[in-house]
Amino acid sequence: MRDVSATEEVRTKSLPASIRHRFPIFEHRVYINSCSQGALSDAVRAAYEQYLNDWDEKGAPWEYWVERQETARASFAELVNAAPDEVAVTTSLSAGVASLASGLRFARRSKVVLTDWEFPTIGQIWHAQEARGARVVHVKEAGDGTIPVEQFDAAIDDDTLLVSITHVCYRNGAMIDVRKIVDLAHERGAYVLLDAFQSVGSLPVDVKELDVDFLGAGVLKYLLGSAGLGFFYAKRDLVEKVWPTTTGWFADENIFAMDHTDYSPARTAARFQSGTPPVPAIYAGIAGIELMKEIGIAETREHVNELNAHLIDGLDELKATVVTPRRPDRRGALVCAKSKDANALVAALGREGIVTSERDSNLRISAHAYNSVEDADAVLASLQRHRKLLA
Ligand SMILES: Cc1ncc(COP(=O)(O)O)c(C=O)c1O
Question: Which of 169, 172, 173, 219 would be a feasible disulfide site paired with 285, CB 3.0-4.6 Å?
């Protein structure tokens, strides 16, 4: 196996060593599956306990719980370099995207361009709009496992309303060149929606730098939160151009007005919200996001890139088929290898105490800040024992 250089080794070792004790799962498992769910930290467990205590002690502290929602909004906004009024607090990524879709008209422009790397929810939401006049076009993956920008060049035209792309593909770990696609789309008058679920928390995501118009994310993977909380960003100038028709009282201009006689959506991105906020998941989400900020997202990216270089070298030695792009700037935190029977391989690793996952006949190995070189080596040693299940 490749030797990591002395400086790399110090860095690669120090980050997990300083935080690992906060994630009890490592006492009994090699957990390397954050593309599916982040590991539970002491901070997130304490946040859930705090929620139960507040409920028990105060009964129904709704004003405080609405305040918690604002804290979550501000925490996520800071994370992606947005303003809080550009962020909706949702219950999933799907909820924010569905609200956006409900507010778009497909009259003047009708085309939605998506990629073959999208998570099912994205394809399903846009195809559902075909009943409302949308025309959905898929940009295909090339033979080398990338989606060349030229494909977007051919697909985005003056009938294109929206280009919907995923930052990091959940099936193969490939990272798209967001800025190039955004520039192309904007040149032709189309908006861009970025699904950042597989990138946020694992690498710096800056909505201003990327210049995306809309962005959806959730907190349960690299942001260390739990299911039930998502965020949706809309560029300030665009918020009032969209009139969601999938809505709810927490999208109202004044949620305390309790007015059932009209629809006056918030003049902020809160118009993409719906009903009662997911209070328990908000407590957990704030704790997860703040913990990731404390750990350092740029440091995490650097650490995981080093770890993944080591992992890919090891996979090459095993003559595995790595389907994740080789270039570090073209991949997220996830490394995938082809398998003859991905379910059986995940189960075999699981029996040895190693938690991974699979999609699309690929084994998914997804390291985060808490994973060490020893974790990567444990995965590689186990894969060597189960070599026959790798394709
Ligand atoms: C890329 C991507 N998008 C979306 C989702 C899920 O979104 P939602 O919060 O709507 O369930 C996932 C979750 O696995 C994902 O990996």
Answer: 219
Integer angstrom CA distances of residue 1 from 64, 73, 318, 361: 53, 44, 10, 25
> In terms of DSSP bridges, do strands 334-338 and 362-366 run parallel, antiparallel, or are they unpaired?
antiparallel
Residue 26: both structure tokens together: 């490592």
230 lines ligand 1 (CB under 6 A): yes
Instruction: Give the residue whose CA is nearest to atom 12 of ligand 1.
Output: 197
**How many angstroms separate the CA atoms of 92 and 218, rounded?**
6
Q: Write out 268-313 in H/E/C secondary structure.
A: CHHHHCCCCCCHHHHHHHHHHHHHHHHHCHHHHHHHHHHHHHHHHH
- List the structure tokens of 320: 């595995």
Ligand 1 center to 6 CA (angstroms): 38
- Residue that the structure tokens 């939401």 belong to: 125
- Please tell me if the CB atom of residue 34 comes closer than 6 angstroms to any atom of ligand 1: no
- pTM over cut 0.90: yes
The pLDDT profile of the chain, 391 residues, written as one tens digit per residue, is 444 454 555 455 699 999 999 999 999 999 999 999 999 999 999 999 999 999 999 999 999 999 999 999 999 999 999 999 999 999 999 999 999 999 999 999 999 999 999 999 999 999 999 999 999 999 999 888 889 999 999 999 999 999 999 999 999 999 999 999 999 999 999 999 999 999 999 999 999 999 999 999 999 999 999 999 999 999 999 999 999 999 999 999 999 999 999 999 999 999 999 999 999 999 999 999 999 999 999 999 999 999 999 999 999 999 999 999 999 999 999 999 999 999 999 999 999 999 999 998 999 999 999 999 999 999 999 999 999 999 9
Q: Could you give the CA distance from residue 92 to residue 78 in angstroms, rounded to a whole number?
A: 19
Q: Distance from the CA of 115 to the center of ligand 1, in angstroms?
A: 15
Q: Which of 75, 78, 81, 37 is nearest to 222 (CA)?
A: 37
**Which residue's C-alpha comes closest to atom 7 of ligand 1?**
93
